[in-house]
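Pilot study result, target chain (239 residues):
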Amino acid sequence: MKPFRNLLLLVLALLPLNLAAQAADPVNPVAEVRSEKPWGFTPFLNYGNGVADRSDYRFLIGGVEVTKPITPVVHAGPLSGQFEFGGSIIPLWQAFTPAPHVQTYNPCPIPLPTNPQGGCELEVGGGHYTGFSVVPVIFRWDFLTHSSRFQPWFQASAGVIYTTHKFPPDYLVPHGYTAGTSVWNFSPQGGIGIRYFTRSRRSIDFGVNAVHISSSSLGDKNPGVNASIQVQVGYTFWK
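Predicted structure:
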């Protein structure tokens, strides 16, 4: 019993020293990423709706984002923070639009010989669109925070979208007339978000992005999607 008692006394004697050491050097995952500037790899999913005249559009997007803090902390009062740069590859890009239907236009958007002045009824495409996207530039500002778990940010980015059919859907025209959009579109966007660090070099990411989709007149028409609001959830591995 004496050796056991001595071991117990030794453990009790060292315990306060161990607790003091932990208190003096706590793990701060936010500060760790801020100072060491590791690469972040984030699988993510987006889901969102169009707004205004595109409110019946739905979007489902999935991919991988790669980012890296690249500057020291810049002190600018309440805007103090750190610049982070990145990009993403999105192999899953889905848009769900109203089914094909007939729509009345007045005036008619094309010069039909049978009705050159008045309105007309034209078939409008629609349905499910699929494609992929690349976002080569993500400019993100990570706000300076004293929290060891939460890291808020805002960002601006821009990407390119390819769809297997011209997007967004538009009216179809008789033979001899051209109309339509493009299989290539651009996606300037901006948003806000926050990371929650579950432990060292691991974080759950939440974001909200406003996304504009436009072909920049690559097609015959450029109706675009003026805005959609998309919620993003991801999980980051910092290496």
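One observation from the pilot: The longest strand covers residues 150-167. A full batch analysis is planned for the follow-on phase.
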